[in-house]
């Protein structure tokens, strides 16, 4: 088998060079003029599982759109459309200090609102007593009339 028989392989002794596929900015390809901070589904593609903004070398965005993308993500986080940290990071804490032998922190319990006992005012207390006294007096007057 000679070198001519193997056209897809590099020549002996030579090392093949890895040439990565050139990444094209998806915003330039779609001709997007503004990146909308309200489109959280699209922005989520550019955030890592740790909640960090992905770098240009990984996403392939151009410098202009990377700056606009970072501003849109920061704005969406500020008005609570997107989380600052993903859910599993919030539960586990810092990965550097995470020990698999230790149990996960329990989720914090929400404080229940205190219900203060109802304090009756004098007006509320006096009204039922007046009605209670008026009823026996009416019965007494009826019995006096019938006799």
From TrEMBL:
This protein's UniProt keywords: Ribonucleoprotein, Ribosomal protein, RNA-binding, rRNA-binding
Q: Name one GO biological process term.
A: translation
GO cellular component assignments: cytosolic small ribosomal subunit
Show the ranges annotated as biased composition (Basic and acidic residues).
Answer: 102-122
| Pfam family of the protein (one) | Ribosomal_S18
List the InterPro entries hit by this protein, alphabetically.
Ribosomal_bS18, Ribosomal_bS18_CS, Ribosomal_bS18_sf
Which intervals of the chain are annotated as region Disordered? 100-122
- Cite a single GO MF annotation: small ribosomal subunit rRNA binding
Q: Does the keyword Disulfide bond apply?
A: no
Question: What role is this protein assigned?
Answer: Binds as a heterodimer with protein bS6 to the central domain of the 16S rRNA, where it helps stabilize the platform of the 30S subunit.
Entries under PANTHER family matching the protein? 30S RIBOSOMAL PROTEIN S18, SMALL RIBOSOMAL SUBUNIT PROTEIN BS18M
Give the family from UniProt.
Belongs to the bacterial ribosomal protein bS18 family.
NCBIfam families associated with the record: S18
The subunit field of the Swiss-Prot or TrEMBL record says: Part of the 30S ribosomal subunit. Forms a tight heterodimer with protein bS6.
Q: What is this protein called?
A: Small ribosomal subunit protein bS18
Q: Which organism is it from?
A: Dehalococcoides mccartyi (strain VS)
The organism's lineage is: Bacteria, Bacillati, Chloroflexota, Dehalococcoidia, Dehalococcoidales
Gene name on record? rpsR
């Amino acid at each position: 088998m000679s070198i001519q028989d193997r056209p897809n392989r590099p020549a002996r002794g030579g090392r093949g060079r890895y040439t990565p596929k050139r990444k094209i900015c998806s915003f330039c390809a779609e001709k997007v003029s503004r990146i909308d901070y309200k489109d959280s589904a699209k922005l989520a593609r550019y955030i890592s599982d740790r909640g960090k903004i992905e770098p240009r070398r990984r996403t392939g965005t151009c410098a202009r759109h990377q700056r606009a993308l970072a501003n849109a993500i920061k704005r969406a986080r500020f008005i609570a459309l997107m989380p600052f940290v993903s859910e599993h990071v919030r539960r586990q804490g810092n990965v550097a200090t995470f020990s698999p032998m230790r149990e996960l922190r329990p989720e914090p319990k929400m404080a229940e609102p205190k219900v203060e006992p109802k304090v009756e005012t004098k007006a509320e207390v006096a009204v039922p007593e007046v009605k209670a006294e008026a009823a026996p007096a009416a019965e007494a007057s009826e019995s006096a009339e019938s006799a």
